[in-house]
Amino acid sequence: MNKPLLFLILSFFVIGNIIGQQYIARQGQVTFFSYASVENIEAKNNQALSILDLEKKEMAVSMLMRAFVFKKDLMHEHFNESYIESDLFPKATFEGNFNDIENSLNQAHVMKGKITIHGITKNIDIKTTVKKVKQNYAISGEFNLTVKDFNIKIPPILSNNIAKVVLVKFKFQYLDYESN
Amino acid sequence: MIKNYSLLLKSIFFIFLSFFIYKALYPHFFRNVKNSNAVFFISAKDLAKQFNNNEQKSNLKYNNKIITIYGTVEKVSFLNNRKTIILTGNSKTSIICDLDDNELIQLNTLKKNQQLYIKGICKGYLKDVILLNSFIDTKDNYE
């Protein structure tokens, strides 16, 4: 076999391998909880998008704020119209870096990254656990967010209804990018 | 006697007032997708293409509006205990339809590539276009 052909075949394998290192979750679940003296609020988003790039050791998340579902429609309305201003800032995003994923399977570790909500970007450390199920990855974790950090203004009259610090939990089940 | 009469009047007034507030706010709080008419009727392919070409314009046009989409089933999913139908758009973008809790269709009865009409509230676009509170619609409503 001549050398150029061998090189070509080899490079195909290498390229194939790089593409194969990307995983996607189109129906990630992100839930937030606000525990306050007057009421507890919980909202779920089941359509968060995440891409996991093993080559670059990056995890990226994007979600639509309007896709959060609340128990009460009034909460949904306040959240989108008054607090998050979803028309102006329709998405929340996260970009994080991880170390060697294969060596940290099934154990909690901290992922460092940047989170953007309501147009404001903050550095954040997130406790995450990576699992591998049938060649595919699943990442879950939780973190706290301080409402004030993201320039979200809660009127004083409602300050007892909404927690100052909100707990966020997430769960992503990834599939191979190519097969999805 | 006069006191009772004024109390009665006040009560009637408050009953009417509550009724009007309820009527005025009801559509905002209890918007029922199933019984509402879709504002737009569009194929899954066209919707995907419009969002690919101009996300901002499509957001303004479709977000938070009830739309009916026709397309073919790419796959169904029960992830996170939700019932989801994904309609084929193009190679990059599909339409993710999260079914309303009141939509009782058995997803197992749907086949891949089956043609469907789905009505739901458009929430926007990430890689895919996202519809919530979706119901299976029928073609008859549009002919």
The proportion of residues in beta strands of chain A is over 45%
What is the CATH class designation of chain A?
Mainly Beta
Structural class of chain B: alpha/beta
CATH class of the largest domain in chain B: Mainly Beta
CATH homologous superfamily assignment of the largest domain in chain B = Nucleic acid-binding proteins
Number of alpha- plus pi-helical segments of chain A: 2
**So, CATH architecture of the largest domain in chain B?**
Beta Barrel
Total of domains of chain B: 2
Given helix and strand content, the structural type of chain A is alpha+beta
**Can you write the helix and strand succession of chain A as a string?**
HEEEEHEEEEEE
What best-fitting shape of chain B do the alpha-carbon axes yield?
A: elongated
Helix percentage range of chain A: 10-25%
Strand and helix layout:
The complex is a heterodimer of chains A (180) and B (143).
Chain A: H1 3-19, E1 22-35, E2 40-53, E3 58-64, E4 69-70, H2 73-83, E5 91-97, E6 108-117, E7 120-133, E8 136-146, E9 165-173, E10 175-176
Antiparallel strand pairs in A: 1-2, 1-9, 1-10, 2-3, 2-4, 3-5, 5-6, 6-7, 7-8, 8-9
Chain B: H1 2-29, E1 40-43, H2 44-53, H3 55-62, E2 66-77, E3 84-87, E4 95-99, E5 115-125, E6 129-137
Parallel strand pairs in B: 1-2, 4-6
Antiparallel strand pairs in B: 2-3, 2-5, 3-4, 5-6
Helix pairs in contact in B: 2-3
